[in-house]
């Protein structure tokens, strides 16, 4: 019975994706902080509390983690012009920073994995580094939430960060408010400090300006016009209209600062980030340091791409058909000069790459994809790499937010909390013409935070840890009960006994396997006895849809049996429509 399934109160932890955290920081930090401003105690307390409670999905932030043997690295994951920058710092075993200041900024640190040690130093009277602080060096530890957040300001002195471990790498999230392009580094033995850059690119020397007499629109206006192009004839009827709008698009000063500032350029790879996504289009800004390229890739059969070079020059290369791009010849090269706009209709089928041809000048480009694209799959001799495109900047005014229908048409994953999943389910179920296939797509693309669902399971059965086995009954946790649906989280233990659950008369149900494998059988009860309609093994991250009615591609099933028998446990998420008045679970 549903009453026997324990609902779990949400903890104080803040399970969010990176874009949501960026939005929260926008709300908490001063909109225009002054360089060198004294410590704002109220702001520091609020931001530290937000970071203390924040639990990011490791699968999301790990895509931005770049490690190098010779030194630690900085990688942008969030930005608000003149307000703050969020950087992911990656520390190999034993690596450390020089002693440095923060150019008058507030500096917040949130540990994501491993540990780092902070050594503080006083300022000497002559502006050089003074003695190390007498107190024990602070240790920030990702495994201990109460010790995972730190704060530093120039009025507190200088500091050096180091990874004390010779066995484990570390990753820390750093928030600097306001952003700064350079800081002072100090020799440990004394002496005058030196200025060190915090960004790999300063300004593109001549960001292209449109001629005064030519009609132009801002990037925000361009995105707005894309949303107005939806027509019964489909996007293909608007191919030339999209290109015409793109030709007219120019970035305003605030858009340059928001989407292509010096902080947006990486020394390791082009920085690609989404600034707009609706049901039909996604818009991606790419910042290219000199000589950088994206590996060979396709964008998917049937997907169209428009491209405009806002600054610099790019080379588009298309490869001849072959098994691997590095074994294929370049069949066609197209030089894309500054200000050029193109419609590249074959790129969805052919393997291709893009490169900044200059050894000294950065480049900036705008790409438009339809259907929307939010993820690339790159191919190289090292293997295949799937990279989800981040949203670095908080949602701009006037630009449409992401919707569940846009998710259904994108090529990419969506990092969600349970709360985010409920929001998208509410959006879809509130439509008069809601579709079961949209719910299936939503669950297939969703990547839930393992820390969140493990916490829910642990809190539900404190007397018996969720990762222990020995029971033939799966453990169930009520995640949400809404007028349109019920969400249940199930744990199937490991051990010798087989865990079995049987359901009947539940209307429509979706099952997403979060970890392990789950066997599922759809059964009809006829005059001649039960007959199996479908039997399958659901692997990790796979989703199934079943219905008691023959509708929306689902077989009409009177009963569903799910079972698990393995030495490794299984965790699954179940969505039921209509909501369950009771859980028809029985062993």
TrEMBL record:
<keyword id="KW-0479">Metal-binding</keyword>
<dbReference type="InterPro" id="IPR010300">
    <property type="entry name" value="CDO_1"/>
</dbReference>
<protein>
    <recommendedName>
        <fullName>cysteine dioxygenase</fullName>
        <ecNumber>1.13.11.20</ecNumber>
    </recommendedName>
</protein>
<keyword id="KW-0560">Oxidoreductase</keyword>
<keyword id="KW-0223">Dioxygenase</keyword>
<comment type="similarity">
    <text>Belongs to the cysteine dioxygenase family.</text>
</comment>
<keyword id="KW-0408">Iron</keyword>
<dbReference type="InterPro" id="IPR011051">
    <property type="entry name" value="RmlC_Cupin_sf"/>
</dbReference>
<dbReference type="Pfam" id="PF05995">
    <property type="entry name" value="CDO_I"/>
</dbReference>
<dbReference type="InterPro" id="IPR014710">
    <property type="entry name" value="RmlC-like_jellyroll"/>
</dbReference>
């Amino acid at each position: 019975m549903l009453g026997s399934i324990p609902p779990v109160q949400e903890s104080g932890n803040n399970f969010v994706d990176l874009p949501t955290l960026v939005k929260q920081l926008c709300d908490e930090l001063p909109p225009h902080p002054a360089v060198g401003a004294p410590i704002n105690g109220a702001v520091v307390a609020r931001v530290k509390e937000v970071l203390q409670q924040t639990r990011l999905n490791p699968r999301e932030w790990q895509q931005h983690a770049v490690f190098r043997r010779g030194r630690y690295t900085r990688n942008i994951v969030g930005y608000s012009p003149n307000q703050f920058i969020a950087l992911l710092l990656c520390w190999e075993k034993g690596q450390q920073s020089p002693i440095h200041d923060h150019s008058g900024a507030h500096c917040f640190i949130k540990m994501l994995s491993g540990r780092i040690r902070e050594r503080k130093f006083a300022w000497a009277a002559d502006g050089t580094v003074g003695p190390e602080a007498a107190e024990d060096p602070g240790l920030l530890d990702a495994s201990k939430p109460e010790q995972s957040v730190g704060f530093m300001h120039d009025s507190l002195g200088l500091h050096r960060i180091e990874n004390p471990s010779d066995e484990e790498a570390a990753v820390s999230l750093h928030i600097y408010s306001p952003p700064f392009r350079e800081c002072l580094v100090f020799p440990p033995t004394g002496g005058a400090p030196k200025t060190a850059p915090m960004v790999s690119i300063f300004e593109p020397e001549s960001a292209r300006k449109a001629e005064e007499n030519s009609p132009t629109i801002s990037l925000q206006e361009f995105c707005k016009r894309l949303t107005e192009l939806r027509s019964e004839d489909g996007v293909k009827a608007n191919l030339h209209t999209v290109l015409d709008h793109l030709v007219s698009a120019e970035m305003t000063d605030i858009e340059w600062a928001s989407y292509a500032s010096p902080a947006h350029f990486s020394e390791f790879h082009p920085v690609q980030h989404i600034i707009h996504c609706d049901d039909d289009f996604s818009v991606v800004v790419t910042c290219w340091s000199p000589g950088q390229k994206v590996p060979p890739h396709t964008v998917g059969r049937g997907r169209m791409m428009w491209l405009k070079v806002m600054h610099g020059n790019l080379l588009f290369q298309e490869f001849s058909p072959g098994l691997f791009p590095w074994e294929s010849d370049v069949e066609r090269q197209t030089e894309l000069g500054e200000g050029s706009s193109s419609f590249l209709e074959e790129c969805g089928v052919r393997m291709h790459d893009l490169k900044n041809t200059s050894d000294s000048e950065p480049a900036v480009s705008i790409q438009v994809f339809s259907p929307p694209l939010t993820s690339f799959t790159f191919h190289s001799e090292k293997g295949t790499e799937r990279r989800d495109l981040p949203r670095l900047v908080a949602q701009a005014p006037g630009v449409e937010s992401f919707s569940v229908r846009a998710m259904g048409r994108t090529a990419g994953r969506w990092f969600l909390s349970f709360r985010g999943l409920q929001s998208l389910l509410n959006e879809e179920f509130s439509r008069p013409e809601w579709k079961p296939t949209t719910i299936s797509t939503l669950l297939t693309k969703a990547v839930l935070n393992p820390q969140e669902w493990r916490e829910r399971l642990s809190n539900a059965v404190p007397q018996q840890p969720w990762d222990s086995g020995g029971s033939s009954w799966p453990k169930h946790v009520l995640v949400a009960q809404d007028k349109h649906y019920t969400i249940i989280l199930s744990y199937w233990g490991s051990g010798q006994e087989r865990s079995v659950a049987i359901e009947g008369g539940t209307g429509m149900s979706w099952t997403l396997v979060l970890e392990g494998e789950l066997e599922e059988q759809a059964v009809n009860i006829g005059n001649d006895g039960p007959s199996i309609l479908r039997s399958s093994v659901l692997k990790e991250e796979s989703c199934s849809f079943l219905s008691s009615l023959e509708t929306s591609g689902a077989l009409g099933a009177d009963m569903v049996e799910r079972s698990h028998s393995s030495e490794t446990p299984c965790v699954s998420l179940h969505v039921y429509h209509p909501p369950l008045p009771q859980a028809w679970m029985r062993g």
